[in-house]
Amino acid sequence: MQKESSFKIYFAPLQESTDYIYRSAHAKFFGGVDKYFAPYIVRQNDGTVKTSHLRDIKSENNQGYLLIPQILAGNSTDFIFLTKILHDNGYNEINWNLGCPYPMVTNKGLGSGLLPFPERIKSILEEAIPKIDCKISVKMRTGLQSHDEIFQIIDILNEFPLSEIILHPRFGKQLYRGEPDEAVFAEVHKTLNHPLVYNGDIESAENLDRLNLLFGDINTWMIGRGILKNPFFPNLLKNGATPEIEEKAIILRNFHDEIIHKYSTLLCGSSHLLMRMEKFWSYFCFGFPDPHKTFKRIKKASNLLKYEAAVNENFQRLRNHEEDECSPNS
Asked: Which pLDDT does position 3 carry in this prediction?
């Protein structure tokens, strides 16, 4: 296991999962994250930004942790417009999304849909960088259609004063299928002049230790689903331990309760709240015995009373399971 001071952990942005309510609760109850990244904001067809996107990055909603907001932009006008909004809200570092793999984004030439067009990327950076007053980092895939595309982009990225590159070594069309291509990541690392961050399928300490041996001078790791599935994960990686059984269950319950309380004040109606908590449990269930049945109980809850009963049963089963695991006779 690596020492705490030897590496950093970034919490990846996931739309509809890592909003300010989730981030704030995670920082409060678990910590261990060096930078939280907000899901992207994008300029709409009418030239505005959604109120919900702006609310998510407001400083008063993001106290107690370091947040890096992210933009989705396919031209310099939108890039400058969004960056200035964020800078005006107090941010000195902003991340450019060149990684989103979903067709509803890529078909518009955004996210990883911009990667087949290196000259467009160059033009955006040429026009935007002189007009903004903050650091720019880039989160990206290796391409849209194939890994080959990134090797047409590296020299362009090297021309600009970018703070770091966060690379997920899959191409967009893969979505999250197959394994991240570590050989491609290594090739990029050889020729990229900027600090490089690894992102992709880190879900165990053993996995991170293996990557650390493979890329010995990489000291920053971005994790998304691994933290959503196990909120203790960053501290486990840094300190090598999680709380005792009863304390663990209490922390998880308090974490859940704070999130549902905050959502209940923000969302309209119980159905909307139940949908949001179902999304939350689609990852949270992995910290419980038999995740499939744990999640199924939540999905079957048709109202808030049934939801509360399902939550209580899930936590009771968690306590019983962990007590059995630690029993001298087990």
From this structure: 43
Tell me: the pLDDT tens digits for 236-275? 999 887 888 789 999 999 999 999 999 999 998 999 999 9
Of 2, 1, 22, 4, residue with least CA distance to 283: 22
Count Cα atoms within 13 angstroms, Cβ side, for 61. 18
Q: What is the radius of gyration, based on Cα positions, of the chain?
A: 21
> Which CATH code is given to the segment(s) 4-239?
3.20.20.70
- Rounded (5°) CA angle 309-310-312: 65
Predicted confidence at residue 328, as pLDDT, reads: 54
Q: Which long-range contacts (CB under 8 A, 24 or more apart) does 197-200 make?
A: 197/10, 197/164, 197/165, 197/166, 197/167, 197/221, 197/222, 198/167, 198/169, 198/222, 199/10, 199/12, 199/139, 199/166, 199/167, 199/168, 199/223, 199/224, 200/168, 200/169, 200/170
- Give the pLDDT score at 143: 98
pTM above 0.90, yes or no: yes
Which sign, positive or negative, has the C-alpha torsion 111, 214, 5, 192? negative
Of 236, 177, 184, 179, nearest in space to 215 by CA? 184
SS3 track for 195-240: CEEEECCCCCHHHHHHHHHHCCCCCEEEECHHHHHCCCHHHHHHHC
Residue 323 has pLDDT above 70, yes or no: no
Average pLDDT, the chain: 94
In one letter, which amino acid is 10?
Y
Distance of CA 276 to the CA centre of its chain: 17
CA torsion angle 129 135 139 144 (round to 10):
0
For residue 208 the two structure tokens come to 């991170």
Mean pLDDT, rounded, for 192-199: 98
Please report, for the chain, the start and end positions of each structural domain, with discontinuous segments joined by +.
4-239, 245-326
Residue 219: per-residue pLDDT: 94
Tokens 């259609």 correspond to what residue? 145
Statement: residue 44 has pLDDT above 50: yes
